TrEMBL record, chain A:
<feature type="transmembrane region" description="Helical">
    <location>
        <begin position="63"/>
        <end position="81"/>
    </location>
</feature>
<dbReference type="GO" id="GO:0006888">
    <property type="term" value="P:endoplasmic reticulum to Golgi vesicle-mediated transport"/>
</dbReference>
<feature type="transmembrane region" description="Helical">
    <location>
        <begin position="126"/>
        <end position="148"/>
    </location>
</feature>
<keyword id="KW-1133">Transmembrane helix</keyword>
<comment type="similarity">
    <text>Belongs to the YIP1 family.</text>
</comment>
<dbReference type="GO" id="GO:0000139">
    <property type="term" value="C:Golgi membrane"/>
</dbReference>
<feature type="transmembrane region" description="Helical">
    <location>
        <begin position="93"/>
        <end position="114"/>
    </location>
</feature>
<dbReference type="InterPro" id="IPR006977">
    <property type="entry name" value="Yip1_dom"/>
</dbReference>
<feature type="transmembrane region" description="Helical">
    <location>
        <begin position="154"/>
        <end position="176"/>
    </location>
</feature>
TrEMBL record, chain B:
<dbReference type="GO" id="GO:0000139">
    <property type="term" value="C:Golgi membrane"/>
</dbReference>
<feature type="transmembrane region" description="Helical">
    <location>
        <begin position="147"/>
        <end position="165"/>
    </location>
</feature>
<dbReference type="GO" id="GO:0016192">
    <property type="term" value="P:vesicle-mediated transport"/>
</dbReference>
<dbReference type="InterPro" id="IPR008564">
    <property type="entry name" value="TVP23-like"/>
</dbReference>
<feature type="transmembrane region" description="Helical">
    <location>
        <begin position="119"/>
        <end position="141"/>
    </location>
</feature>
<keyword id="KW-0812">Transmembrane</keyword>
<comment type="similarity">
    <text>Belongs to the TVP23 family.</text>
</comment>
<dbReference type="GO" id="GO:0009306">
    <property type="term" value="P:protein secretion"/>
</dbReference>
<dbReference type="Pfam" id="PF05832">
    <property type="entry name" value="DUF846"/>
</dbReference>
C-alpha cells in the first residue's frame, strides 16, 4: 500500500485503513474528504492536461458529483422555466433529472454492448462529471440570457457543449474496439447536444 | 435477553402507545447523536414525500427537498451510520489489473451496543419496506412522477440494506471462524493435558 501520496490516496480502502486505528474519525472529516475528492475528480475530468494515465483515476468513481451537478442543472433550468404554472417548473426538474440518469445509463449500456470493458459506474460517473460545463452555460444563460439575442446565446452553449463532449469522448473512445469507436461516441454527442439544446430553449 | 451485553437497559414495558423504543433507553446507546441522524434524514424524506405538499405549494421545492433528503440519507447510512452503529462498511475497490470488486468488511474493535444495531437495522429495514410500499401504491394509481421519487428512495434504501446485509454475513462468518478456532484450541489443550 502506498501511503506516500497522502493527498490523493489511490483507493478508498487505503484512505480508510489510515483511519481504522481510530474509528472515531469525525463526521466532518469524512464529509470534507469526500468533497475534496469530488473537486479533484472534477479537475481531472475536465482539464485534459491532467490525464496522463488514460482515465485510471476514474476507478475511484463516485456518484455524488454527478448528483450535485444534475440537481444544480435541474434547479437552474426549472427556476428559469415558464412560471405561468408551477407544474411546468417541476416537470422540467423531473425531465432533466430522469434524462441525465437514464441517458447516462443508456450511453453506458451502449458502450458495454459494443464490447467495451468498463465498469458501469465508472462510465456513469464520467458522464455525470462532464455535465458540469452544461451547468455553467445554463447558469450564464439564466442570468444574462434575457438581454442577449439568440445568436449571442449560442456562443457559450456551443463552447460548453464542445468542452463536455471532448472531455468524455476521449475516455469513451478508448473503451471500445477501434472499428466501433464512432458507434460508441455518437450517443455521447447526442446526450450532451440534447442537454445543451434543452438548456437553451427552456 | 442476554443481560451480559453492555449498553442494554431493560425497562419495564410502559403502558404508552410507543413502539420498541420504550424497551431500550436510547440515551444509553453508544452513539446517540448518530442514531438520531440515522432516523432524522429518513423521517425528513418521508415527511417531505407525504406532507410537504400541504405546506409548500410549489411542487418544485418538494421534489428538490425529497431528492436532497434521499441522497443525505443514503450518504449518512452508508458512510457514517454503518461505521459507527454496526461497525460495517461496504464499497467498491479495484484490483491492480483494473477490475472492479466490491468489498464488505467489518471492524473488530469499535464500541457498539445492541441498541445501536437494533436502531440501525429496524429503521433501515422499515424505511426500505415503506418506500417499496409507496412505489407499489404509486404504480397501482399511475402517478408516474411520484413513482420516480418513491422509487429512488426505495432503491437507495434497499441498496444500503443489501450492502450491509452482505457485510454482516461476513461478520458472522468471522465470528464462526473465531469460535471454531477457539474450540479447536480448547480441544487440543484438553487432549494434551
Amino acid at each position: 500500500m502506498d501511503y506516500t501520496n497522502q493527498k490523493h490516496p489511490q483507493n478508498y480502502s487505503q484512505m480508510e485503513d489510515l483511519k481504522t486505528l481510530d474509528l472515531e474519525e469525525s463526521v466532518s472529516e469524512t464529509i470534507m474528504r469526500d468533497l475534496r475528492m469530488i473537486a479533484y475528480k472534477l479537475k481531472y475530468v475536465l482539464i485534459p492536461k491532467e490525464q496522463e494515465d488514460n482515465g485510471k483515476e476514474l476507478r475511484n468513481w463516485d456518484l455524488w458529483g454527478p448528483l450535485i451537478f444534475c440537481l444544480t442543472l435541474a434547479m437552474t433550468l426549472s427556476f428559469k422555466a415558464d412560471s405561468t404554472t408551477s407544474s411546468s417548473k417541476s416537470d422540467v426538474f423531473a425531465i432533466i433529472f430522469v434524462l441525465i440518469w437514464v441517458g447516462a445509463f443508456v450511453v453506458t449500456l451502449n458502450a458495454q454492448l459494443l464490447g467495451g470493458k468498463v465498469s458501469f459506474f465508472q462510465s456513469v460517473c464520467l458522464l455525470g462529471y462532464c455535465v458540469f460545463p452544461i451547468n455553467i452555460e445554463a447558469i450564464i444563460i439564466a442570468f444574462v440570457g434575457s438581454y442577449l439575442p439568440f445568436v449571442v446565446k449560442l456562443i457559450p452553449v456551443i463552447i460548453c457543449f464542445a468542452w463536455s463532449a471532448y472531455s468524455s469522448v476521449g475516455f469513451m473512445a478508448s473503451l471500445v474496439p477501434p472499428h466501433k469507436k464512432k458507434l460508441a461516441v455518437y450517443p455521447v454527442f447526442l446526450f450532451y447536444l440534447f442537454l445543451s439544446w434543452f438548456s437553451l430553449i427552456v | 435477553m442476554n443481560s451480559k451485553n453492555e449498553g442494554i437497559e431493560m425497562k419495564p414495558i410502559l403502558k404508552q402507545d410507543r413502539e420498541e423504543i420504550s424497551k431500550y433507553d436510547i440515551t444509553k446507546a453508544a452513539h446517540p447523536g448518530i442514531c438520531f441522524f440515522h432516523i432524522f434524514f429518513k423521517f425528513c424524506a418521508f415527511f417531505s414525500y407525504l406532507f410537504l405538499g400541504l405546506i409548500i405549494s410549489s411542487t418544485l421545492f418538494q421534489y428538490i427537498l425529497i431528492m436532497i433528503f434521499h441522497s443525505f440519507d443514503f450518504y449518512t447510512v452508508k458512510n457514517i451510520t454503518g461505521k459507527f452503529l454496526v461497525g460495517l462498511r461496504w464499497y467498491s475497490d479495484f484490483t491492480p489489473k483494473g477490475d472492479e470488486i466490491w468489498r464488505f468488511e467489518c471492524f473488530d474493535k469499535c464500541k457498539r451496543s445492541k441498541i445501536d444495531s437494533s436502531v440501525f437495522w429496524t429503521f433501515q429495514f422499515g424505511a426500505s419496506c415503506a418506500w417499496a410500499f409507496f412505489v407499489f401504491t404509486n404504480v397501482l394509481s399511475f402517478e408516474f412522477v411520484d413513482i420516480i421519487f418513491a422509487g429512488i428512495g426505495a432503491s437507495l434504501s434497499w441498496i444500503n440494506l443489501w450492502g450491509f446485509y452482505k457485510c454482516s454475513k461476513d461478520q458472522q462468518r468471522k465470528m464462526k471462524g473465531v469460535q471454531s478456532y477457539l474450540t479447536k484450541k480448547g480441544l487440543q489443550m484438553a487432549v494434551q493435558s
